[in-house]
Amino acid sequence: MATKVITPFEATHPGTVILDEINARNISKKELAHKLGVLPTFLNEILKGERAVTPDFAILLEKSLGISSDYWMKFQNQYDIDIARLKEKNVREIELSETWNIIKEYVPVNQLKKLGYLSNTLEENIAKIKSIYKVETIDNLVNTVAEHRTLSFYRKSDKLQINQVNMLAWSKIAEFESDKITVTEFQESKIELLKSELQKIFFENLDVKERTRKLLGTFGIKLIYLDKFGKTPIDGFSFWSGNNPTIALSVRHKRIDNYAFTLLHEIGHIELHLKENKKRRFVDIIGSKDKDIFELQADEYAQKSLISDSKWKEFKEFFTPLNDDKIFEFGKKNKIHPAIIFGRVCWEMNCYAMKSKIDRSLN
What we know:
Helix content: 55-70%
Strand content: 5-15%
Largest sheet: 4 strands, mixed
Order of helices and strands: HHHHHHHHHHHEEEHEHHHH
Mean pLDDT: 89
Number of helices: 16
Low-confidence stretches: none
Shape: rod-shaped
Structural class: alpha+beta
Strand order of the largest sheet: 1-3-2-4
Number of strands: 4
């Protein structure tokens, strides 16, 4: 096992020990200089640490103070080594500080520290950020952020402000956390069964997040919950991690209908898009008016998975005019949570300010 090298806060010159000996023996500097056969100014320079103890002087000290010359030479040698290490340490601290100043321009370090990813040690923090962003150098980090700014792989919002640095950090943390998770082999052929089991969880609306996480894990899908950062109005993020698809959710609205739709939207990305191209990334934000074909397909997938076309047709034909009682009746009959039905109504009518007594809280 390698011995850990400890660098002292301050190097101690052998002159300090000589001065202690003088004081302990009640000898004046002038007396010792005379005894050593050197000028008082010469001795004073050594006592102040301005001159090194040489082999010749070490022998003189041995004769005058009775302390071996080897001791003084080892002390001087250790002092020289400590000085060299302190210089190296100072250079390293300057390099780390300069590196950290660069990182702060490209990474929301305060947010990462708040989440517990960073400590008070610069070297450890820099290593952690490299690990999260999967880069070997700071140049790689800068290039990664620059490339991200030129990409548009997530929905753009016309209403909400988006901080692209925070967006990238959020997605990188999601990927970082996904690497820690182990689930069973992805069961592509059982997606329909998975959606059926999810409907039961949504309908019961009890401990939904944890039950959903465990359920998806048994079907080989990783599920991560990650609070959103400032100016990162993210609903969901779907990507491939190792041998498994992964979904990251912010659950920022804390509504059962929004949770269910977002989750099924991401499952739609997995089934329709990711399994054919595992390098794709889908970060979904609300408020988009300019959706690409992938997002439109995932939206349709989520809608039909929550309420099939045939059931929705039945609802519109037999439950008009609309009111809460009819929504509850239809939901109870088809085992669909009433908030999911009401959310679909709001979406189809493009009216999200509709009045209702239906509890949409995610439990």
